[in-house]
Records
---
Amino acid sequence: MKALLILALVGVSSFAFAKEAQPVSSPPVAVQYEYGTNLDIKRVISLSTLPNVCDVVPATMTYEDHQGQVHTLQYRAMGEGCSQG
């Protein structure tokens, strides 16, 4: 009985090690946003920092969709350096 329990524990732990040993996936390929692109955003993971300039600059957003897939989107945004005074 003890041998069977030990065998079961070894089998379960080998599955855990196999899962940990899987290679880390590379970041998703960035897709360029175009007007009208359908976005399925469940959760925003990260946004690029916008520079302190008053100009349109490239920006990046990484997000997770409702199926759990991670996407990276490139778009253009206004920099943070414009004053409204």
---
Amino acid sequence: MTQINTTSAPRIADYLKRLKSPWTLTLLVPVVVAILDQPNTVPVIEFAIRALLGTLPYIVFAVIMIASLKAAGAESVIAGIFKGRETRMIVLAALFGGLAPFCSCEVIPFIAGLLALGTPLAPVMAFWLASPLIDPPTLLITAGALGWPFAVAKAFAAVGLGLMGGFAIKLLQSRGFLSAPLRASPVSRCGCGPDPFSGKPIWAFWNDSTRVQTFKHEFAHNALFLLKWLAFAYALEALLITYVPASLIAGLVGGEGVVPIAIAALVGVPAYLNGFVAPPLIAGLMEQGMSSGSAMAFVIGGGVSSIPAMAAVWSLVRRQVFAAYIGLGITGAILSGVVFQLVV
């Protein structure tokens, strides 16, 4: 009697997991529009494709940059800023927080190692607040979707938030607060990259076959990652432009004053997906009436409070430090929005 092997049969859960891919959601957008509003199907598709093609040069440059940093082992440079006097560490951590080419899981053991080695919490917080807001690919994607003035302003806001957070934590600790920030449980490495504390960067990585393979892998991985999320983002932007009334957006986060900016900063907490999806969505919201200050508050507040960023903080530190992180992030988002609104 022949025995049927059921272990290799695909499970329904596997199919459902694949359907949750951004590619699937992107393809569903024109299908749903074709079913519910057939005349707008072609305009929605054309808008998304034109927007994606317009950002393509920024995507290519961003992918080459991040692959080069990974292949060269640039992470080890970041570890060197957490040495010396505390004030110097805070300033350098805020400045270079956005330059570290870490994935979300690499940040966790990196920060855990710093705290375990006795690095003061203040510079770590400065790095932690600045790091999720801006990095080379995010800067380029933001410039492609929202223009260089907005991208540069976001970079300044990230550094400013890092400085504010670092010196605020230093002040709190000088008053006796947050003296034991780290949780007791150890955090292991995820295995997705080199140890950021070891080795020196090799900038001429093309002379090393192993580093060339790293470059190729990172190039393909990040190209696919950016394309799938940006395709989804521009599909959502097309829906936003087509179906969301401008009066609704303008009523919530349009106009001047602190209230719309504060609303945008708080809305960014649940609505923010990642740094690559946000710029196209913000571009659509601004076309519908969102003020420039609210847009800045949304990307700053959402970046700090995104699920990977909050998970990294929660997994390592005690609740008081986590609360300080969220409070500083939202406060910094509102201040960034107010300043950007005044400047613009």
---
Amino acid sequence: MIHDGDHEILFANAEMITMMGCTSFDELMNYTGRTFDGIVYEADRERVNREIDQQLERGSYDYIDYRIKTMDGQIKEVFDNGKLVDEDRFGRVFYVVILDISQLKTRHMLETALERTE
């Protein structure tokens, strides 16, 4: 969950913490500077912010792929599905699901290989 006005990270589940190579929410917050921009690989940030803004002009959802740089220096391709909502406590927030594309590709390749051996 990300606050819309300043891109501040409000919550991250254990899966996101692990994907970023961190061991705790506090470590993730320190590594990213508490912002969504801190998750997005620097070379992709301008494009990502531009595309999200363009998509939000057409509605409340965004779908985008980009790269992240984990705390240990790995570069991972991810897919992001977000929805902008008005939330009573925090105001306008994004609920975002970020999937590791490389992990999905690996799982698909393994499943395909297993199917061929059966």
---
Amino acid sequence: MSTPETHRAVEAVWRIESAKLIAGLARIVRDVGLAEELAQDALVAALEQWPESGIPPKPGAWLMATAKHRAIDQLRRGERQRQKYALLAHQAELDQAQSGPDLDAALDDDISDDLLRLVFVACHPVLSTEARVALTLRVVGGLRTDEIARAFLVSEPTVAQRIVRAKRTLAEAGVPFEIPEPAQRAARLSSVLEVIYLIFNEGYAATAGDDWMRPALCEEALRLGRILAELVPQDPEVHGLIGLLEIQASRSAARTDTSGQPVLLLDQDRRRWDQLLINRGLTALRRARALGGPPGPYVLQAAIAACHARARTPEETDWVQIASLYETLALVAPSPVVELNRAVALGMAYGPARGLELVDALTSEPALKDYHLLPSVRGDLLAKLGRAEEAREEFERAAALTRNERERAVLLERAAACR
């Protein structure tokens, strides 16, 4: 195998194995930053050795063994970490005493718990939202710093700084590498779900730049969510989030036209919706409901998405049910954005005047002051009421507020159509 081919193979292995590798190392050294450094050292070793020796039969085990040996070498030079060295050296001796299958079993031992610990640490509330997203994509998703920077349209040094600060904050706060106790788990799990949802949303409707969507981020969020669903199978909200993301992702191919311009939900060709993803999403929603208990915000949002997915045409959409679900969501997780979405549903279910009444009540909401979808929704309702000049002004204001070039073009087109 040529060197370029080997490098591509190494990158593929890294994407698959890096989270498990970092998680296993972090369990031993109790430090996410050090664990990632050791994993990166193993990756460099693979890039140096595999072009000559070939890819080993079990590349994940090779990376783990190499990382552990590098850890021992490094910890030998650091007297401050003698206890960690002793632990690593003892485990390395045990590994070396085992033969092939036994070694693999040892490396895979408790891997699910290790991954879950890593997810909880990377999404720890002690970190800022931006830091949680960057660190999760880095250590759990295996994305490079430049990939994260490109996805979020920020500079590479900015992302690198966020990751460095996140690791430092975790170390200084003494965040333990462990699954939270049951009393803390719900709050911590909420943070994990929020991070995955934020990653998906940035891919689904990019906040800035020239592209309407960034599919790679949607795919990464789905992958992280599916991993989490396997790790926490008894939590309804986890399956609710997966159901929501699967159904949302099913529309991806229909959300842009051949030139890359956005296509709004009611104008989409529903024959292009991915039925496999829809079925997976509906299955996840049924699983969430089967677990019982009052529905949480992600289960409710998945139920709303399911109403759209089940409608073969826009006219068949059960807007009355959607409006009812938004009303419940507003009680469970109140926010101005939820109220804005409820206004859209009310407008579709009971007429634009009903929706506009709620939107007008939101115009003084500080949180929506610079939110471009507020004037966009208001413009749509005004246009349906025949108030074309007012609608044009709202669409133009929305266009001035958005930072996404594709969305700006659509809003300006809608403004022009009101003239």
